[in-house]
Amino acid sequence: MEIRRFFIAILFISLCNLGFGQRIRLESAGLTNVSFKGNVIFLKYNAPTAMRFYFMMSKPAIAPWSGLPVKGEAKLFYYKDNQEVVLVTAPFTNADWPSGGTFSQMIQKDFTVPANTVTVSNPVVDVQARWRYYKEGYPDPETTNGWTEWYYASTRPFALNPDEIPASSFSGSNSTCGESVYTITNPYKVTLENAAGIATLTSLGNNQWKVIRIGNAVGTVILRSTYEGKVFNYPIEVSSEMKGTIDGPVGIKQGWNDNYFYFKPEPGMDYTNVNWSVDSPHLITTQVDKYTFKISVPTNYPLMDKGRGDDVEIYIRSNGECGVMEKSRILRILPARPIKN
């Protein structure tokens, strides 16, 4: 996202005839020293944002207006819970027309937007520019002394700067075989990607979402939180695979005995009714304990490929969070003495 730092001005309104019947009018208004994109003004995250409000007024330059007192004010504000929150109010008087004429000099006032005016949960407020003036001895049609109503000029959105938002963080299992609940800190727009036919996503409220597996589908889905081009991902493996690794040699030769293989569960995981197996009836196997498996290869093991050896698959199966679960890996049975073709 391209965000510019504008040291001249971003306008609320530009010089034009607004079509108001008022004799004293706000002709242009804007802000300096602000970060913005398009017409959106960006505020800092969790910190105050300093900027400068500037504006130009106009009044008739002919008698009797040229000799009448001018007193008024312009302000920027927004609504929160149906209450007006004023960010800055700047007065104007005859002194702002030092050379006479129709247009005032540029009137400026520094101000600071407080921290947390916009937040992750409320990332945008619409700030309005308005003005009013005090009528005193004015000619028709403004013969009644007193303050005018507040006249509306324009509105600009003030938004949370997307380059300063806190990252979404995810809490929950990185795999699921049925359904799992995830908590997201600083969630934005939350979706489940790459999930067609694999899993669905349900919002539970309170920053929690549930991922539900579809049937026996297998795949990796992405729990995603996005905000204004910022993307935060959490991959989730959907399957009935046991969580852990099978360690041991990648290849063993004919005649090798007592080769050990170990299953190492992921931290916090444990399984019951564990059984090991291998998809070859010619190997001699022993389950030492639930996470240890021993394989011996007879010297006369029948190889299909007497040069490179044959692949077999080792399985570990158990009862777990989703019923019967398994993990497997490939083991190569090598010839004691390779036969060259």
TrEMBL record:
Domain of life: Bacteria
Species of the source: Sphingobacterium siyangense
Protein name: Uncharacterized protein
